[in-house]
């Protein structure tokens, strides 16, 4: 299956690669590496073609941002987050750490408040 890597915002084609299975294509909010470059997937869309009287999946287009995965990124509840997700102010997002200290790191923030980890 063909996967297109497209620059977020401009849609410019950066690269194309082949994967064996649709499950191997990363979902939004995940980092992945290709040929020594690191990307954050922001959006994923499927491209179909009409063949033999029906639509078939032809390619997957990923809107990506060239970005190295931060050292304090971690998997939390099946998604990537930056910083400490137990803090009340953490955005629980792969794009933004928090509103108080967006550039981090969390261990030097004097506004840290332990949350109960159930906020969404």
Description:
- The chain starts with a strand and ends in a 38-residue tail after the last strand.
- The protein is 0% helix and 43% strand.
- The chain has 2 domains: 2-66, no CATH class; 70-120, no CATH class.
- The protein is mainly beta and 120 residues long.
List the helices and strands and how they pair.
Layout: E1 2-7, E2 13-18, E3 31-34, E4 37-51, E5 54-66, E6 73-76, E7 79-82
Parallel strand pairs: 1-5
Antiparallel strand pairs: 1-2, 3-4, 4-5, 6-7
Return Rg in Å. Answer: 18 Å
Low-pLDDT runs of 5+ residues are none
Look at the structure and give the mean pLDDT. 85
For the termini, the CA-CA separation is 35 Å
Quick one: how many beta strands? 7
Shape: elongated
Helix/strand order: EEEEEEE
Briefly say what this structure is.
Helix content is 0%, strand content 43%.
Structure keywords:
120 residues, mainly beta, single chain, 2 domains, 5-stranded mixed β-sheet, two-stranded antiparallel sheet
